[in-house]
Amino acid sequence: RRDLTSFVHLQNARNQRVGQADVIPGDGTYPTTVWRAGERVAQHYSPAIDDVCSGGETVRVLAGWYEYAADGARRPRLDAPGDSALAGTWTLPIVSLPFADAQPAARTTLPLGQDGLVLTGYSLPASPSEAGAPLTLELYFQGGPEHADLPAALTLKNGGETTLWSGTLAADADWRDSEIVCRRLHLRMPQDLEPGDYALALEVGGYGQMVAPLTIQPSTRVFDVPAVQRAVDATLGDAIRLHGADVTPGDDTLTVRLLWQSLAPLATSEKVFVHLVGPDGTLVAQSDAVPAQGYGTEQWIEGEVVADEHVLVLPADLAPGAYRLRAGMYDPATAARLPASDAEGRPYPDDAIDLGDVTLGN
């Protein structure tokens, strides 16, 4: 019998791990080597939260097993692809931290009109944003429990005013006096926002402060669909369309350029798979990656067209002949594929979109 360790990982929508727990069953007293067939074992987990700004975010709870003696090799699932199972979701509590433990990218001291409430820092991306783009902002507040339920709003100002977010400062926070609460806000710039220089403004309880300048650059996004060698009209879920692929064989590689289009914004970052399979269905080459060299699906906006290149390395002993190309997307946390269907709504087997044959070799 294998001596296994269980894990619970907390993962946000961008597939970043923000907390975890690793436990031998029975808190170390009941290892899997003594389990009996059919036995059920209950285990309590208290994951350590590594990300001080993740409070208020809803994360996925992923569970699985690994073998410490085998260099931490995870055990694959027997009932589904992957090596972890989605146990549920959890909205993390907002918990304050000592001032010395808060590490914002920029420090400031902006009083917010309430006794003892101060914005002590913030973190913003260094590069300019553009219309329709997501923007993650972290705000660090020093205060206490009496400030948690104050109304708050973020706006962009440039002659006029555009509201980016409104809500409660830190609802239900465990906020100890004079400590810091970090709020991470996932914003999206309006699609019709004009390029230019803006001021990011914060208002709390009716009192406003300018936080930082923000430059909106002209959009670099593409919305026209170019011609493609192998046209398909496939959809993945309700959010993404695959228009087709350009395929370029090399001496020992196969370059596949996929043409995606966003049908609706996605909050999650999906991975793309491209598979080359033999006549008997055997996988002979593949690529698995976030689209377009890291331009994740959570950054796409409705109507945007994304060119996504994958280079498959062919085996040195690959026999000449006809091979089949297939592609799709999947959740990297669970390995569950996005449902894929053709123009008539018929599902593709295994949610793998058929891109046709490729003849390789002499």
Textual characterization of the structure:
By secondary structure, this protein is mainly β. It has one helix at 291-294, and strands at 5-11, 17-23, 48-49, 58-67, 73-74, 85-91, 106-111, 118-123, 129-130, 134-143, 151-158, 160-168, 179-188, 196-204, 207-217, 230-236, 240-249, 253-262, 271-277, 283-289, 305-313, 321-330, 340-341, 353-360. Strands 1, 2, 3, 4, 5 and 6 form a six-stranded antiparallel sheet that branches. It has a five-stranded mixed sheet with strand order 9-15-14-11-12, with no helix packed on it. Strands 21-18-17-16-23 form a five-stranded antiparallel sheet. The chain is flat, with a radius of gyration of 25 Å.
Layout of secondary structure:
Blueprint: E1 5-11, E2 17-23, E3 48-49, E4 58-67, E5 73-74, E6 85-91, E7 106-111, E8 118-123, E9 129-130, E10 134-143, E11 151-158, E12 160-168, E13 179-188, E14 196-204, E15 207-217, E16 230-236, E17 240-249, E18 253-262, E19 271-277, E20 283-289, H1 291-294, E21 305-313, E22 321-330, E23 340-341, E24 353-360
Parallel strand pairs: 9-15
Antiparallel strand pairs: 1-2, 1-4, 2-3, 4-5, 4-6, 7-8, 8-10, 10-13, 11-12, 11-14, 14-15, 16-17, 16-23, 17-18, 18-21, 19-20, 19-22, 22-24
